[in-house]
Amino acid sequence: MFRSSGALYGGNADFIEDLYERYLIDPDSIDLAWRARFDGLRQAAANEPTGPEAPHGPVRENFLRLAQESRSRARTRSVAHLEPAAAEKQSAVLSLINGYRYRGHQVADIDPIRLREPPKIADLDPAYHNLGPEDMEQTFHTGSLYAPDRMPLNAIIAMVEETYCGTVGSEYMHITNTQEKRWIQKRLEGYRARPELDAADRRWLLTLLTAAEGIEKYLHQRYVGQKRFSLEGGDALIPMLDELIQRAGRKGQKEIVIGMAHRGRLNVLTNIFGKPPHDIFDEFEGRVHIDWRQMAGDVKYHMGFATDVETPGGIVHLALGFNPSHLEIINPVIEGSVRARQRRWRDRTGDLVLPVLIHGDAAFAGQGVVTETLQLSQTRSYSTGGTVHIVINNQIGFTTSHPLDTRSTPYCTDVSKMVQAPVFHVNGDDPEAVIFVTRLALDFRNQFHKDVIIDLICYRRLGHNEADEPAVTQPMMYKKIRQHPTQRAVYADRLVADGLITQEQAQRMVEDYRDSIEQGVVIARPVLCGLDHASRVDWSFCHGTSWNQDVDTGVPLEKLQELTERMLQLPEGFELHPRVEKLWDERRKMIHGDQLLNWGYAENMAYATLLEAGIPIRLSGQDVGRGTFFHRHAKIHDQVTGDSYTPLQHLGEHQGAFIAIDSILSEEAVLGYEYGFATAEPHALTLWEAQFGDFANGAQVVIDQFITSAGTKWGLCCGLVMLLPHGLEGQGAEHSSARLERFLQLCADHNIQVCVPTTPAQMFHLLRRQMIRNYRKPLIVMTPKSLLRHRLAVSSLEDLTKGQYQTILPEADPIDPAGVERLVFCSGKVYYDLLEARRARGQTDVAILRIEQLYPFPKEQFAAVIEQYAATEEIVWCQEEPQNQGAWDQIKHRFHTLIQDGKRPYYVGRPASAAPAVGHRAAHVEQHERLIDEALSGRYNPSMNKRIPPQ
To answer: Where, if anywhere, are coiled coils annotated (predicted)?
Structure first.
């Protein structure tokens, strides 16, 4: 509704301005009549730029015309209509306000050391909008500005300059959601980008800055030259985190999980988490109480920590994730951990558990995992209700990097705009502005459950580490930094000038902090340790357990049949795809014993039996609902309505939760996320499947730094399962190998399990074993491709009802061990090729055995097999991968150690190659036939370890 009969009545200016902004962003979002008017204006100004940044020139003409129309319809002199000239001025004022909203951040006072001169922005010049000195005292409508309805122009300019060009630079006009944008405008303009702080608040701010500076100076003096990756120059991070935690607690949040790299980590541990100073000193001095026979440990600035902190709203649990030096790789890990914790709290919206990620400026712009993690943030199965991102912006990458070479975007935070996250740049030398944006960011996140970015612009007082000399490559920057007072000193002088403290009191704070550190007193807010809260992650059940626990993973036939019937039930009228309907019919036959079991059925039954026992399951990856190779069909789709249905979610009232997530096209972030989820959820089966096994290459950092080493570095437990399709099928170098050799190379200290199941029953027992026994280590499974429907790769119902996962599968045919002249060991798909070739040849002098668990290597079972075939002279390892790949190089020492009587094992397979497989089908077939023939019929010269051609 208009406020008066005239559309251009002054009180309607904000309505029209808002309407025009919405039109620029999304023309379909406004009334058809208004859209038609603006369309006409745009056609008349076809040569002008378009989009949200477009000048508002065309709308001025519209205002003039509307004013004329309004005047012609005037009925009484009491309605204050705008003359054309006044309408043009009014429009210009609104355009100027919008200019500050869009571009004020470019000239804001956000750089404490003022490295570069701010640019000249025409949009912020009144003259650009045809506003001159004669207009400054004139009163104008303020439109949508959060201010009195009418103000003099000079007052309007003063207000928007204070709000948008002070020590906070706000970027939010790229957001298309009007509600979010207006909410931010109200908070910024209503408070003039300044917090409401009383004297006690301001003194507490100085206390925190004193603590932030104090710990760094103390460590620098006590441990000269040792690396600590100092926070100096970014000290305002400490009051920022303190405010964030206290405000989150006040808002009812129960947990905060923080991920950060090494910069400032020791400071955060001391002053926020309350880690005892003497523990940190012990780490510097090498007095770490750790059993090196059990753990490798890690450097002090990678270590995590957990504690509980008092807040006005109750106790908040804080967790700081362990993080390697791969900077931003912690991002998805923290998000996954948060999702698991939210699940335990039954926190569907993210109101109780808050993720906080602390980044470096160059890393935020440069590391691809940042973009991948942001892309996860609003997806259904990965969202955590919004993350508060804090960028410690030192305005430099590594010491030798020129700031202009660290990115191609104006700000390091620009990548976040793809998810329409607001960005608040803040001058680290203004701790009160830091508090304001902290409150604003947290409240935005909690209000809209979206990511938000705080760009804490500061500097790095020392080099990349404490032994570095940054002035060698950055002389001008460090000349400024060394002349610049610390943030504590700047704020102390400010409080002294305001009469809140004296210089002597400020100095006393410094001395008191140092005394506390030397006495080993915990400096942070009161912390509470050892609390048993609802979200506690308890891994104690698997401590001291070993991988070779004997567990029966069979399931009674009646239970299998009952669960299958439930899985095959569909909603009334559900229309299956013909190929899926055929598969459904086959599964009905399987459960009645009319058809042997295939891989898809056995895998789904493993999930069903675990779910029925109350164990939650989370399966993610690209195309996992259906399965890349059309075998799983855990999620099916109605061919008429397009609706999806997940049978495993409808097994019973008290079943565990099941979710199959067709993830975004990411490996690094998604695998990191699932790893984080698995570390925080001991009692759920968490699986990630690569579309092809070699796609895991894209997540190698997660594999190297977390999955295979976190247990020995940090003592972390994790039961994540990785399903990696593997097998040379003649499809070229890619899509062939899951790089089995890389996983085996990383094996030590019983850190992971590497298995190659070759039957559906083996897969059934393997997945059940992962959850039934009290043992949790990451499980790497080389899963098949062609075997999913191979006529020999089948199992019986009886195979599922009894037994357990077998680490070595015995000879399948009735071959007498006494007549065996050659014993062939192998893993994976090549077994079936060997088996079919041997049967075709009618050979009975060759036994073929499958090693189904390559690590931990089943030494006892292997020795028993060798004993069974004690009379056999020739022992062969056969693999389809090239000799420098696959399992051979990583397990041959096991053969040499366990095979006695002077016998030597021999390798049969493809020659060493730089590529995993050849690129032509004919070459693949020729190589494969040769290795099969050699494994079954070749003879060897022990001195040369070469094949002698048959006579």
So the answer is: none
- Whose tokens are 């990097």? That residue is 401
Is 542 within the bounds of a domain?
no
Going along 867-914, which residue ranges are E strands?
Answer: 874-882, 905-910
Residue range(s) defining the domain that contains residue 826? 811-948
Both 610 and 676 in one domain: the answer is yes
How far from the centroid of its chain's Cα atoms is residue 361's Cα? 18
**CA separation for the pair 746, 744 (Å, rounded):** 5
Rounded CA separation 118/101 (Å): 17
Enter the DSSP assignment of 450.
-
Is the alpha carbon torsion for 435, 438, 444, 446 positive or negative?
A: negative
Q: How many CA atoms lie within 13 A of 731 on its CB side?
A: 12
User: Which secondary-structure segment (H or E) carries 150?
Assistant: strand 150-152
548 domain residue, yes or no: no
End-to-end Cα separation, the chain, in angstroms: 100
- Please indicate, yes or no, if residue 178 is contained in any of the structural domains: no
**Tokens at 46, concatenated:** 């076809």
Q: pLDDT tens for residues 714-761?
A: 888 999 999 999 999 988 888 899 999 999 999 999 999 999 999 999
Residue 703 is classified by DSSP as I
Pair of tokens at residue 827: 């893993």
Question: Which stretches of the chain drop beneath a pLDDT of 50?
Answer: 1-11, 13-14, 45-55, 60, 64, 67-80, 940-951
Residue closest to 847 by CA, chosen among 867, 809, 817: 817
pLDDT of res. 53: 42
Using DSSP, state whether 905 is helix, strand or coil. Answer: strand
pTM of full prediction above 0.85: yes
Domains contained in the chain, number: 4
Closest to 813 in 3D by CA, of 845, 858, 789: 845
User: How far, CA to CA in Å, does 202 sit from each of 198, 205, 622?
Assistant: 6, 5, 51
Write phi, then psi, for 409 (nearest 5 degrees): -100, 155
Cis omega (within 30 of 0) for bond into 856: yes
**What b-and-e string marks burial along 724-749, b requiring 16 or more CB atoms within 10 Å of the CB?**
bbbbbbbebeebbbbbbbbbbebbee
Q: What is the DSSP letter of 124?
A: G
